[in-house]
């Protein structure tokens, strides 16, 4: 779209339903954030935003799909920290994490929790470590594929405890949670946006939270540092993107709607219930997401190169 045609298109925007692609399965943590934010943005834009789940390969299949979509404002992409780990982990990606997208803004930083099936024998992190060491190779660890948040947290956890676990990949931690509830896998490290209600309902065991301080939403849950693993902190940042070439007036409209959604009392309350909060308005902007993504790609690529772990 060029010149006056582009302007007319942008002025009429949005004139039909918008699709927000989530690169993980439905019912999981990224899906939860996307549905909440998408609904509120849709109200502001006076058009429905529907969620399309394109899971697999740690989020890279969904990213590749959006990179190829028309840059007309009707396909958006909500992804998390995985957008910054994939360039280091995957030597062959058929998109560029920076150049294939127009950033819209940061959304939230979500804490993670170490959780296990309800009848897992260990009662605290100390017992969990002892059990894992005594049962090497037998303890199964669910994750959402290489580059997912659950994969990264699991890698950090295994490094911290000095033991390997048998990983079981899923298209998202939504389905992984179903298997944890059913007892088919032993444990995982997953975002509070997916674990809070199951922990509070007593359906799974929770050992620790990956933030520096305890969460107001689950004050009884100790931090990993309190549990004997200091310096192990993870928070899963989320961002919203459009395909490269989406006209600036459309990006501006989407940035405005994102900022309104992040101030929506319903979104704020739900985030608080799930142990998180929206980012400050200054971060819900294209420049802030662009800068954050670049620095995170540098940071993770260095960590990944040092560890020598690759997806292919
Ligand atoms: C999901 O939505 O399934 C998660 O964000 C997966 C993950 O990164 O662990």
From TrEMBL:
The keyword Transmembrane is annotated on this UniProt entry:
no
List the InterPro entries.
BUG, Bug_dom1
Q: Which CDD domains match?
A: PBP2_BugD_Asp
- What Pfam families does the record tag this protein with? TctC
Provide the alphabetized UniProt keywords: Signal
Is Metal-binding included in the keywords of this UniProt record?
no
The record's similarity note reads: Belongs to the UPF0065 (bug) family.
**Know the name of this protein?**
Tripartite tricarboxylate transporter substrate binding protein BugD
Organism from which the protein derives: Massilia soli
What is the taxonomic lineage of the source species?
A: Bacteria, Pseudomonadati, Pseudomonadota, Betaproteobacteria, Burkholderiales
